[in-house]
TrEMBL record, chain A:
Keywords assigned by UniProt, alphabetized: Lipoprotein
Domain of life the protein comes from: Bacteria
The species this protein was found in: Flavobacterium resistens
Lineage: Bacteria, Pseudomonadati, Bacteroidota, Flavobacteriia, Flavobacteriales
Name recorded for this polypeptide: Starch-binding associating with outer membrane
From TrEMBL, chain B:
Membrane topology: Multi-pass membrane protein
Keyword Hydrolase: no
Species whose genome carries this gene: Flavobacterium resistens
Record PROSITE patterns: TONB_DEPENDENT_REC_3
Start and end residues of each TonB-dependent receptor-like beta-barrel domain: 440-831
Pfam families: CarbopepD_reg_2 (PF13715), Plug (PF07715), TonB_dep_Rec_b-barrel (PF00593)
Residues of the TonB-dependent receptor plug domain: 124-244
GO CC terms, sorted: cell outer membrane
Record-stated family: Belongs to the TonB-dependent receptor family.
Gene3D superfamilies on file: Carboxypeptidase-like, regulatory domain, TonB-dependent receptor, beta-barrel domain, TonB-dependent receptor, plug domain
Protein name: SusC/RagA family TonB-linked outer membrane protein
Length: 474, 1062
């Protein structure tokens, strides 16, 4: 009897375990295999803004290099005492999150994403590649996302490739091509995306202007003559607006728990020198009321020297930048106007360079809420501000530098290209008096993509902060 | 797939029907004989002895009373051959009268019986591989709260990395890391039930949660047997590649009448290996400090480094003095005094009984551990039952159960605890003048408000609790189908809930609103197995021991996590008390494996043995085309002393053995299809993003092949016993989630190609130099050396490195051509002559090319145990060593940077050899200038903390640029090479003194037995290379070892244990 019971139980157990097939058991209950275009788009916009505006690439690196901000504590990055683990987020998030998700949209069958999604994805992908090459130099571009160990392309190859990509993006974008949702920036207004595309083309045209003037000129003409137009008002500015915690502005989140940044003395002094009305927007008065004026922190000091400037006696960046809903500006109207001024100055397109220059400054004032016409004209009429046609790089470089406040990566790139304003490395910096000219490649490239890395470094120069990139002639 | 399953079911039914058919055979009845087999000395019945009629194949086995019965066609008188493992084989001539047969125990290596795979006991001499066992008392009497720690140094080829602190995890590796990426921990099997040893959320948490096997109570362990590697463990299949630890718990068997055992122990723990701090300079920077608000309001009072003024009693306002200038003096023990003396109370009672039909043991154990970090505490209670009942002559059923309740209200803050909870993080930045007693007086007081909260605040308010309820148990049945054929059936479970709660108090520095999170796990491991076991003397010369069985394994684990990132009001720890939307996640993971297996041992004249095993698995985690995988093993042994009939006074025993085995392994669940994850929606817009991990639809099973040979011998009547083993293991087609450059589109990709080779030798020596009636001296030595080599990672050979883990800029790599666990990081830039190159500023430069700086895997391990027995007194002393291997020390790196360590004293001030320098014109922007040959220019301030970094300028001329000591000790912070140390150590690991109360005396006291043990663990370092830390500190059980990162100090433990048996 017992034996029978045993055998029955045994057989029953053996059979009952077949109810779920082994395939069913291995169906992943935790994530989906099906991506959706609007959700990916929302994700890339948010993560792209975090990347551009967050600490790793912005206020703990490039924003210090261009002396917009300074560190008052733990000054290693401000002294350029950093390593090849310091600049990994731009690379890793740029490629594995942004470019990969955007490629997913681009590769969708038409039923899953109309051509507007693809045009937007191609635009954002171009912007991401642009950030990458501006910061590192040669980067994987043509083989990116296609090989396990992709080869690097030179900056020339990347920039010219991006001009083609953006041309294609422009052709994909059309209001008649269907609606787009999940677009947190332009709310599905395709005409604004078309303007952004042309503004980015103009930006790239100037990037290569010192190396490939003919190509640059053609690109500038293409960008400015396209029917879609350029960014033409502050309402067209490409910016990502944050909400409340935990999705607050990354600089705001940082200041909630830490207090190691100040506005740079270099910038404060410059703004005082120019009587610039943007100063109260860019900076807060020191918390010690007895100081009574804006005081920047000096860049490149030792920890103790930085510290002894006094936490209470120096100015934090303005609250405009530090509230939870502060925007991350990525491509502004003012920048487009500066680019037009320079394109005219270089003779690429026709127009009035000085007027574009003045409009650019005005657009910047407006962007930061300064609309008083008298104040603006007083500012523009100062000799120190007036457009100098004999040295357009100085005028445009200096004013662009001020207008780019907070946009560390682009301020860093344009400062390297235009070589104005003249910045001086701080006393405790470790690059023998130089300011960085690029980011280190992530140290992991050496272990994960060693051959490609070595080939790139052989062509570009040592993987050092001071190695000049192709676009940066002087 | 269906087809294969059906075939598998058919196989099971077929096996069952063999059993049923076989049951029909019965011998012809002519003569009857009754008898009993007893131990010659104790006169206890011997259960399960086999009795064969010489010259026939007819045999029976004794029952629970040692009784047997023959009905046979054989005429009286005939000869019985009586054998039982561990006893001398005896022949007895019988006639029709009932007989009592005495069996004598064998006392040498020839007869040693060991537990092998699936819990089957075999004579050790018949095995073609090594196993090694420890008795429960060796584990229980030392009172380690993570019993794995007490294995250290006692088993050849077993590497234990002890817990950091006193409440952490312990890592066990047998014969090296055979899996490049996966879990390398062995499989634990308790009374036949596979038991989970995960360390859930090991890396992601702020605490070092004890690995799950530490739940077991060593008091309940009868024996622990280690099956080293696939040769011994092939029958366990997939999970055997890393070895198996078989644990047999105590049962009521052999207990005469009722036995009650009380055990009570207490352990005192002290922190050791605290960093060696300097006491000459206090908090601050460039020699200046004055406290106002602790966040930059005063002079350098936001700085949490000790580059401040001399600790010479000068008057400076400090954090507790309300602006009053008070003496600035060293508090040399300000870190040590924070730690408490740890206390562990361990009490247990068990009741055991056995009679002819049944046996049982029930026990309860309570352990309360108060840790060395204030407020840390773990309480654990184990309830165990182990019972068997003989329902009929041929059927026995039983149940084992172990119910474990762990309740830890607060675990000590480990390295990743961050500023809110990390203990040593704060102490490596702790101002040397800080008076810890002033902090203890008022926990809202704080020495630094830029980065930290009061350490007591952290310890008492920022807590992580853990509650685990766990049931391990089985029901089992054994049926004697006919003589020689048994059937065993078992279904076992290991099920637990593990809930963790994280609180950060409102007002904590860095987390001003506090936070609250709950993290809950449910783990369920079920195994059902059936096994036919056939034992037969085929002829006078040949014996057969065969088995065939099946196993169904179901495993699932689930996790739910929710966090309120900022609390709405203080001190209310609920998920609804939140300013923000909750962040949450949940996962569920399931897998199932069907297995069928068989093995056979063929013995010849009891001196030559051939063992064969085979197993086939069907795993849910592999694609259906690759789901089924088969693997065999073969091994053999030859006892030369018997085969050649060597009779010698010197050589007692000589055995050669060897074998080859293969085991397959499946993947983790859900590794086939690439997926997209959802992130917290933004303002009503869902966010989806790539998982950044490219999976693989064509996964194949991993395979490990191992060859092992060995010699075992004993000399001079067992005065010296010697065992040496050599093994060579190749693991290939390894499933690796390989880190790839992000520019490939993914941060990692799943590949199926990795190959790693491990080879090594193990030596065990056991000697009895002195063996007198009252005094014995036993020496046990074990030595093991393992060499690994990563052969390939992918078949295209594009990938050279697999990143196992990273910390502080150093990667741990499996690098092609290198030993496993290469430490890869930044090195000094050097010229052609190997000199360090400094920049114009006199500071060293980092080479832009990263380098392999060492390997964490040691060259060899050794342990020596000396045991002295005098009458009833036993003293054992264990020294163990781990030689070779390197580690990267975060403690030294941070402590140099912050200037708290004594090793930062040279050069700090003229008394420490510092050079004198000045700034021309007293302008600190001017370069520092050495005072040479007399005095500095009049009126300038002279500093006496100048140093020159040993190196050359780019042009090859020696560096002569003076820098301050502060610059000097910070200069190498980003150069990993500077903080690589040898991890070699020799430790006096354990001293244990046991007094066994004399049996006669015990009887007088009404006891069956009693013993008292005093033990000390981790007593001292006989040698170590790395300063300021214990080189042996695991923060988790994973493979990314060799990265020390502000680990908690290890503890020295003293315990006293009393065991009384009524």
């Amino acid at each position: 009897m017992l034996k029978k019971l045993l055998y029955t139980t045994l057989i029953a157990l053996t059979l009952s375990s077949c109810n779920d097939t082994l395939d069913d058991i291995n169906a992943n209950p935790n994530a989906t295999e099906t991506p959706l275009a609007p959700y990916l788009l929302t994700g890339t916009l948010k993560q792209g803004a975090d990347l551009y505006w967050g600490d790793g690439n912005n206020f703990n690196s490039s924003l210090l290099f261009v002396q917009h901000w300074a560190k008052i504590q733990y000054t290693e990055p401000d002294r350029y005492d950093v390593s090849n683990t310091s600049f990994t987020s731009l690379w890793n998030t740029g490629y594995a999150t942004l470019i990969t998700d955007l490629n997913t949209i681009i590769k969708f069958p038409d039923a899953q994403a109309n051509s507007n999604y693809k045009g937007i994805a191609l635009t954002l992908r171009s912007w991401t590649f642009l950030l990458l090459t501006d910061a590192y130099g040669s980067i994987p571009y043509k083989e990116a996302g296609l090989k396990v160990t992709p080869a690097y392309n030179t900056q020339k190859e990347v920039y010219t490739g991006l001009l083609d990509d953006l041309k294609q993006a422009q052709s994909l974008l059309n209001t008649a091509n269907g609606a787009v949702t999940g677009d947190l920036v332009y709310k599905g207004e395709i005409s604004k995306w078309k303007k952004l595309v042309n503004s980015l083309r103009l930006r790239i045209a100037l990037r290569i202007s010192d190396r490939e003037p003919a190509l640059a000129k053609q690109a500038a003409i293409d960008a400015t003559s396209d029917a879609g137009g350029l960014i033409s008002s502050n309402a067209d500015t490409f910016k990502f607006t944050y909400i409340s915690s935990p999705q607050q502005n990354p600089a705001s989140a940082w200041f909630e728990t830490r207090d190691d940044f100040r506005i740079s003395k270099t910038l404060v002094d410059k703004l005082y020198e120019l009587s610039d009305p943007r100063l109260p927007v860019y900076a807060q008065l020191p918390s010690d009321a007895s100081v009574g004026k804006y005081v920047g922190g000096a860049n490149g000091l030792s920890n103790s020297d930085a510290n002894s400037q006094g936490f209470a006696k120096t100015s934090k960046p303005g609250t405009y930048f530090l509230t939870s809903a502060s925007p991350a500006v990525i491509a502004s109207y003012s920048e487009t106007l500066f680019n037009l001024a320079e394109a005219v100055a270089r003779g690429y397109i026709s127009g009035d360079a000085e007027q574009y220059y003045k409009n650019a400054i005005t657009a910047s004032f407006n962007q930061f809420g300064i609309t008083d016409a008298t104040a603006i004209s007083n500012y523009l009429n100062q000799a120190t501000v007036k457009y100098d046609a004999t040295n357009y790089a100085k005028s445009i470089g200096t004013q662009k530098w001020i207008a780019f406040y907070g946009q560390g990566l682009d301020a860093f790139t344009e400062w390297r290209r235009l070589d104005y304003p003249v910045l001086k490395a701080g006393p405790a910096t470790v690059l023998d008096g130089k300011i960085p000219s690029r980011f280190f490649y992530p140290g992991t490239e050496q272990s994960l993509n060693g051959d490609s890395y070595q080939a790139a470094v052989a062509g570009q120069g040592k993987d050092l902060l001071t190695t000049k990139l192709w676009f940066d002639v002087k | 797939m269906k087809k294969k399953l059906n075939r598998y079911i058919l196989l099971c039914i077929f096996l069952i029907s063999i059993g049923v058919n076989a049951q029909e055979t019965k011998p012809l009845i002519q003569s009857k004989l009754e008898g009993t087999v007893v131990d010659a000395v104790t006169k206890e019945p011997v259960i399960g002895a086999s009795i064969n009629i010489k010259g026939t194949t007819h045999g029976v086995v004794t029952d629970f009373d040692g009784k047997f019965y023959f009905q046979t066609g054989q005429k009286f008188p005939y000869t019985l051959i009586v054998s039982y493992l561990g006893y001398k084989k005896t022949e007895v001539v019988v006639n029709k009268n009932a007989v009592v047969i005495d069996l004598t125990q064998e006392q040498n290596a020839l007869s040693e019986v060991v537990v092998t795979a699936l819990g089957i006991t075999k004579e050790k001499k018949s095995l073609g591989y090594t196993t090694q066992a420890l008795k429960g008392k060796e584990l229980a009497s030392t009172k380690e709260t993570n019993f794995l720690n007490s294995l250290t140094g006692k088993l050849a080829g077993v590497r234990i990395t002890n817990s950091q602190g006193d409440m952490g995890s312990s890592r066990i590796i047998i014969r090296g890391e055979t899996s490049i990426a996966g879990n390398n921990q062995p499989l634990f099997v308790v009374d036949g039930v596979p038991v989970d040893n995960s360390q859930l959320n090991a890396g992601g948490a702020t605490r070092d949660f004890r690995n799950a096997i530490a739940d077991l109570n060593p008091q309940d362990i009868e024996t622990l047997t280690v099956l080293k590697g696939p040769n011994a463990a092939a029958l366990y299949g997939s999970r055997a590649a890393h070895g198996v630890v078989l644990i047999t718990t105590k049962s009521g068997k052999g207990q005469n009448g009722l036995g009650i055992t009380f055990n009570s122990g207490i352990t005192v723990s002290q922190v050791t290996t605290l960093p060696d701090f300097q006491n000459s300079y206090g908090q601050g920077s460039n020699g200046k400090f004055s406290f106002v608000d602790g966040k930059g309001g005063g002079v350098n009072d936001g700085v949490d480094e000790s580059w401040g003024p001399r600790l010479d009693g000068r008057l400076i306002p400090q954090f507790y003095s309300n602006g009053q200038a008070v003496p600035f003096v060293a508090h040399p023990n300000n870190v040590k005094d924070f730690f408490n003396t740890g206390l562990t109370y361990d009490n247990s009672i068990s009741v055991a009984k056995s009679d002819e039909k049944s046996d049982f043991r029930v026990g309860v154990n309570n352990q309360k551990q108060l840790g060395t970090v204030p407020n840390s505490e773990i309480n654990k209670t184990n309830f165990t039952i182990n019972t068997n009942y003989q329902i009929s002559k041929s059927i026995k059923v039983g149940v084992t159960g172990n119910y474990i309740v762990t309740d830890a209200p607060q675990l000590p803050g480990g390295p990743s605890g961050g500023r809110a909870a990390g203990v040593m993080l704060q102490f490596l930045w702790f101002g040397r003048q800080v008076d810890i007693n002033e902090l203890d007086k008022d926990w809202t007081r704080n020495w630094n408000n830029s980065y930290y909260s009061n350490p007591y605040w952290n310890a008492y308010y920022n807590t992580t609790s853990q509650q685990r309820n766990r049931l391990i148990g089985d029901i089992h049945l054994e049926a004697k189908l006919f003589d020689g054929l048994d059937f065993k059936f078992r279904t076992g479970v290991d099920y637990y809930n593990d809930r963790r709660k994280y609180t950060i108090k409102y007002g904590t520095n860095g987390t001003p609103f506090g936070s609250y999170a709950e993290d809950a796990y449910t783990v369920n491991e079920q195994n059902t197995e059936g096994l036919f076991h056939y034992n037969k003397n085929l002829s006078e010369d040949f014996t057969l021991d065969a088995l065939a069985g099946f196993n169904i394994r179901n495993h699932s684990d689930a996790n739910n996590y929710q966090k309120a990132p900022r609390l709405a009001v203080p001190d209310l720890y609920t998920l609804t008390n939140s300013r923000d939307p909750l962040t949450s996640s949940n996962t569920l993971s399931r897998l199932r494996v069907y297995s069928a297996y068989a093995s056979a041992q063929l013995g010849f004249r009891n001196y030559a043995f051939l063992n064969l095993t085979a197993r086939n698995d069907w795993s849910s985690t592999l694609p259906s085309s690759n789901r089924s995988y088969f693997y065999p093993s073969i091994n053999g042994s030859l006892v030369l002393t018997d085969a050649l009939n060597i009779k010698s006074n010197t050589l007692d025993f000589l055995k050669l053995r060897g074998g080859w085995s293969e085991v397959g392994n499946d993947a983790d669940p859900y590794q086939l299809s690439t997926v997209y994850n959802f992130q917290t929606a933004f303002d009503g817009n869902p966010i989806q993003t790539s998982s950044q991990k490219k999976l693989n639809q064509d996964l194949k099973p991993e395979t490990t092949r191992s060859t092992e040979v060995g010699i075992e011998s004993s000399f001079w009547k067992n005065r010296l016993h010697f065992d040496v083993a050599y093994y060579n293991t190749n693991s290939f087609d390894q499933i690796l989630e390989i880190k790839t450059t992000a520019s490939s589109g993914y941060n990692s990709q799943l590949i199926n190609a990795g190959k790693i080779n491990n080879q090594g030798i193990e030596v065990q020596l056991d000697g009895n130099p002195i063996q007198l009636e009252n005094f014995k001296w036993n020496v046990g030595v074990n030595y093991s050396k393992n060499t690994s080599k990563v052969e390939i990672l992918d078949y295209d050979k594009k990938i050279q490195n697999y990143t196992i883990g990273s910390s502080g800029g150093v990667d741990v790599l499996a690098s092609v051509g290198q030993a496993y666990g290469a430490l890869y990081g930044t090195a000094y830039e050097r010229d052609a002559n190997g000199n360090i190159v400094v920049g114009a500023n006199g500071l060293p430069k980092a080479d832009p090319t990263k380098k392999v700086l060492g390997h964490y895997t040691p060259d060899y391990l050794a342990g020596v145990t000396n045991t002295f027995t005098y009458k009833n007194l036993e003293l054992s002393v264990l020294v163990d060593a781990s030689v070779g291997g390197e580690l990267f020390s975060g403690t030294n790196r941070t402590g140099n940077y912050t200037g708290v360590l004594a090793q930062t004293l040279p050069g700090r001030g003229a008394e420490n050899g510092g050079l004198s320098y000045y700034y021309p014109g007293n302008n600190t922007s001017n370069p520092k200038t050495l005072v040479t040959g007399g005095a500095a220019p009049g009126g300038v301030a002279v500093y006496d903390d100048g140093m020159i970094f040993g190196g050359v300028f780019a042009d090859g001329t020696p560096n002569n640029k003076v820098i301050s000591a502060q610059e000097y000790y910070k200069a190498s912070y980003n150069i990993s090479e500077a903080y690589i140390y040898s991890s070699t150590y020799v430790k006096l690991r354990e001293v244990r003194l046991t007094y066994n109360v004399d049996k006669k005396l015990a009887k007088k006291l009404g006891l069956q037995g009693a013993s008292i043990t005093a033990a000390g663990r981790n007593l001292l370092f006989i040698y170590k290379d790395v300063p300021n830390i214990d080189p042996e500190t695991a923060f988790n059980t994973g493979n990314a070892q060799g990265l020390e990162s502000l680990a908690l100090p290890t503890t020295r433990n003293f315990s006293l244990n009393v065991n009384l048996k009524f």
